[in-house]
Amino acid sequence: MRCPYxxxxxxxxxxxxxxxxxxxxxxxxxxxxxxxxxxxYEYIEHAPLTVIKRDGTREPFDRPKLQKKIELACYKTSVSxxxxxxxxxxxxxxxxxxxxxxxxxxxxxxxxxxxxxxxxDVAYVRFASxxxxxxxxxxxxxxLEQLAN
Length: 149
Ligand SMILES: [Zn+2]
Description:
Layout: E1 11-19, E2 24-31, E3 37-43, E4 50-52, E5 58-60, H1 63-74, H2 81-96, E6 102-104, H3 105-119, H4 121-131, H5 137-148
Parallel strand pairs: 4-6
Antiparallel strand pairs: 1-2, 2-3, 4-5
Helix pairs in contact: 1-2, 1-4, 2-3, 3-4
Zinc ion (ZN) binds at residues 3, 5-6, 8, 31, 33-34, 36.
């Protein structure tokens, strides 16, 4: 790291600690040339998330598109707009924390379903029917029976 005081290229790290809830590392550095101290921060680079679809094609993660699907599932249920916003944030946090920046669409579906299940049964089953591609009424009945247990 180039020293901001004398442009020297050499420095040593004198202190290093986690900050911002563990999302960053703060390093105190001391210039070998002039002994001035300065601070650097290190973050994880959040690369854009790529979704691998069922047919194997890839597309960038599309938050508005997923939000639309969740809104449809929650239509006329007790799930509030705030609940949906929070759900989206949780899903994004879950996906953002992954080291691998490619995720299968069914994994996103599972994450949403897991959260929706705690919010509203109807919204959950509606969403599950799209993601798991229910073929007939039997699939619905099976899902509902599992919910009841
Ligand atoms: Zn210096």
